[in-house]
Amino acid sequence: MSEGTASAAELRDTDLDGPELRARLARTWGTGQGLIARLSTVDHKVIGKRYIVTTFVFLFLGGLLAVAMRLQLARPESDLIGPDLYNQIFTMHGSTMMFLFAVPVMEAMAIYLVPLMVGTRNIAFPRLNAFSYWIFLFGGSFLWIAFVLNTGPDVGWFAYVPLSGPEFGPGKRADVWAQMITFTEVSAILVAIEIITTVFKQRAPGMSLDRIPIFVWAMLVVSFVVLFSMPAVMVASTSLILDRLVGTHFFNPAEGGDALLWQHLFWFFGHPEVYIIFLPGTGMVAEIVTTFSRRPVFGYLALVLSLIAVGFLSFGLWVHHMFVAGVPQLGASFFTASSMLIAIPNGVQIFCWITTLATGRVVVRTPLLFVLGFFVIFVLGGMTGVMVASVPIDTQVHDTYFVVAHFHYVLIGGAVFPLLGAVYYWFPKITGRMMSERLGRWHFWLAFIGFNLAFFPMHVLGLRGMPRRVYTYGPELGWTDLNLLVSAGSLVLATSFGLFAWNVVRSSRSGDPAGPNPWGAGTLEWATTSPPQPHNFDRIPAVISREPLWTPRDSLPVVTGLSVENRELVVSTLTDARPELRESSPEPSIWPFITAIATTITFVSSIFTPWAAVWGSALIAVCVIGWFWPKGSKEDEE
Amino acid sequence: MKTHPVEDLSHLPTYGFGAQSPMWWGTLGLFAVEGMGFVLVIGMYLYLWFINPAWPLGVTPPNHWPGMLILLILLASLWPNAATERAGREEDLPNCRLLLIVMSLVAVLVVGIRFYEFTTLHVLWDTNAYGSVVWFLLGLHALHVITDAGDTIVLTVLMFTRHGHGKRFSDVSDNAFYWYFVVLTWIPLYLLIYWFPRM
Fold first, then answer.
1. Which residue of B has its CA nearest to A198?
2. What whole-number distance in Å separates Cα of residue A26 and Cα of residue A272?
3. Which residues on chain B are in Cβ contact (under 8 Å) with A636?
4. Mind listing the pLDDT tens digit for each residue in A404-417?
5. Best B2, B4, B10, B174 residue to mutate vs chain A (most A CBs within 10 Å)
6. What is the rounded CA–CA span in Å between residue A598 and residue A592?
7. Are A320 and A397 in contact (CB under 8 A)?
8. Range list of β-strands (E), chain B
9. Global pTM?
């Protein structure tokens, strides 16, 4: 091992200071201007921003579909949208929101923020990160292109067999759904591995486990949940596509298969998925509450243990989605108990945040408003969650609008409100400009009122028997007025998002300059410029407390000795973050992009011919060899 | 923000082995994902067995000799694999080259036996659910062996070029680490595929 063998002539950060150090590091770590350079970038901030923008585009597309559904349901027997298109629309809405927005947007925020928050210069495996973005973009585009071509999936976002199987799902619609899963899950799993490795091995010296910011803890737990849950949906969708394409019988009862097997596989992924979406939201809430309470978070240990407990418990709930599918009574009782149990660590988190706010010097700005909105909406969603965990209630309201109301309260309340707060909170870091506070307050109140108008009446509609996934209803059923109210609320909610988009565009052009730490926050991402330099930090911080910027000192302790000419970062030990290596971080490469194109050709072709899996694998193998073959750079030849 | 240096890290090495190396952790992450995939497909097999009293649905289970041969070869390969990992850590280029050739041949041999086995199975994937899940399990493991064979062959060629030094030794050691996973996963699959239906 080349212990301290870097040549004496190599320029280190000990030899330089100030603007010259910054300029040289920026040159070493920067992304070029040409098209090839942009396609080759491995900077976590550039890729993170692309990911965030792409996921928000999918959010707006999914939101437009929701508005279309609400226009159709605003009055009885409306003929605005026919049943076939309606089936595609609700499937596209659910699939887009879950697979192309909710999970990837949280990972996208982590891709941007985690390396900054742990004080490193890039994410672990940055080329894999670039590859994961391209795969995600191509997979999402594939789904939407198919939809535009009237081949959008029409089997619901969980694609139950036999409806999605070869007998009842002719054409390519269900195949498009299954292969979109492959794209997005490959992408999500790769990002999870990158985050785990970054948090385990690239934390700034001194950032021991008990000094990791809560958001980073949340993303670490989520990444583990991704590792162990997403293989289930990949196994499920692969089996489905095999049943459809080459005649296997996994889900065919006539040949020994079983339809409920699909539900087990899907929900073994699908329930942890809820926490994959929700836990990052709790991490964001913790950061925002801490900063705007002007005090360290109350109950750090309890919060971290709650995150870990939720991560474990999330794997023990999946059968509560199948209570009406005829599961044994003992099993149903077990899953009722575990579904209620998970409310305990979630409750602990809520109490910790309320205590932090109650004992802090609270400053109410837009990010905190969204957190306060989160408290109200999420707690309501949590309470209906405890209700539907009970088999008798679930049996009554299963597949009704009560469930639609419940999961929108949990997902929008638990994830989207914290996410919007997080966007207001970290926007100044990402762009260097503040978002408009006035527009932000309008946005919050329109979103809060619009959301409750749109979703609260759905509880009542569900209790009155309105089933989900119907494209219309008769006037005699007594659902007309509430549906009109829901549709009006959805328009208010949609307007709030329009205002949000306007605020983002306007503020990124002409918002007030933010400076490095506009909120007076305590975590490391605020120690660098806004937006951060390509190399994140001129010198890597040495961490001595949980909120390094709140420690009363005149200056930040840093470590030195890294190369200025090559992309070096500090690799540290797992528990107490003692520095152990100066490892090179991969340089930009076009190969991740090329490999993603090869993978896309393979995945898309394989819904038409199984042989694509054979020749496509060879194509991907050639690209991967090109990717990994050393090109003679310093990083390769270390 | 003003800063003050507290520690100089220029003495630190530029690459490491095992748990020091981020790549080792990345490989471990892949084990977790792929291991979970195996666990789930094994779960599918057992689920289908549980709901079908007539398992294996009137089909003769696969001849156990190819699987046994693969098991013996994989177990025997643990020794040269451990030696490869050690040669990587010791940055012993001649031994790395020799042992990587051995491990490439082992992987190709296992792939060859597996493809032969596919032609001798008593059931096709589209015969019934038993056939589907047996082909799925064998295919999944074959995919891992093929991937590792590809990795090992490319790395072997690499170590014969001018690039075969420094950090590449860490890659040799990580590649050997992955082979342990391939061997480890075959043991429960072997018992499940060949002996469970005969019980």
1. B22
2. 40
3. 163, 167
4. 999 999 999 999 99
5. B10
6. 10
7. no
8. 3-8
9. 0.95
